Every structure is written in structure tokens, then in C-alpha cells.
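Reopening this one. Same input as before:
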Amino acid sequence: TEVIRQHWLPAYRVRGEGIFLEINPKLLAHVSSERRIGIDGRPTVVDLSDRGVVAHTLAHLLARELSLDSGYALPSIRDRIYDLDDDRLGFLIYTAEGDSMGSMGGVVGFAHTGILEGLLDRMLESVGWCPQDPVCIESVLDAGRRIAGACHQCCLVPETSCELFNQYLDRAVLIGSDSSRAKPILADFL
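Same output, byte for byte:
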């Protein structure tokens, strides 16, 4: 008898919607694209560059802002970071559910011209202040979690929403801090 081999993986279909934003590389020309290799030199599951930390922090801030108006609770919104070796950088904010609840139109409705800009403006306004400042923004790198300048009041999301489990976040790289000497990324936008 001949053995028939089937190549398949178990899967299920999800319905969802999302917004993908690609970051202009000229905006981050002065930020390192070298990958961070774990805390003690050991590689982790995903190693982002400093530019990837910027994208990840922006993704969290946008997801938090989007949850206020989209009809989705924050735990339903997820992020995916694209920190590619060819210097392309972007992030996807999306929802995906096993039923039709993943496609209510509440996320893609913000992708229209004029509406997206308003959402981004509100996000930029919110990034400058955290109720935990100055403690939050002046935080020393938490080596165990790979975060600095981020807390549950400003940047952290439920861990089910973040494929990096709230690691690689730093609000200080976006807006600066008293102890930071580097030019903040968003200085020209705020």
C-alpha cells in the first residue's frame, strides 16, 4: 500500500481589521538600527533595534488612543512590529477574533484621511505626560523586562495584546527626559 502524506497544519480562521503604519526612515536617521541582543548577550525570541523600540512604543500609544474611540477594548487590540534588516520599519495595530466581532469597522474607520491625522495628533498630545511622571520618564532600564520610561498609566497594554509582552518600550526616546542627552524623536512634532 502506498502511504499518502498530507502536509497541513492545524489552523482556524479569524476575522479582523487593522491599520499598518510605515515610519519614514529619514525621521529616524539618527537612531541606531543595530539589534539589541538580549540583556546579558543572549539572544531573545525577538530582538528589536533602537528604531524598533521607537516603533513599538508608538504602537502601544496608538493602540491606547484607538481603544478610546474605536469600540474595541484595549485587550482586544493587538500590535505587531516590523523592524526589518533592510531598514524598513513599521507597525500593525489590529483586531482578530474567531467570529465576526473582529471586523466591526471600528479600527479601519480611523484609517481615512483627516481621521487618522486627528488620532495621531491626540496620541502625540498624550505622550508628553504620564500621571506617574517624573518617576515614569526617569525610570532606569528594567533589565528583566527590557523597558524604561513606561508604565501602565502611559505605555503598557495588557500582555495578551502585545506579542513582545510589554518589553522594548521607552517613552523617553520619543519625548526626551531630564537625564537623556539624545534628541527626542518627536521634538519636531510636539
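So the earlier flakiness isn't reproducible anymore. For the record, Residues 50-69 form the longest helix (20 residues).
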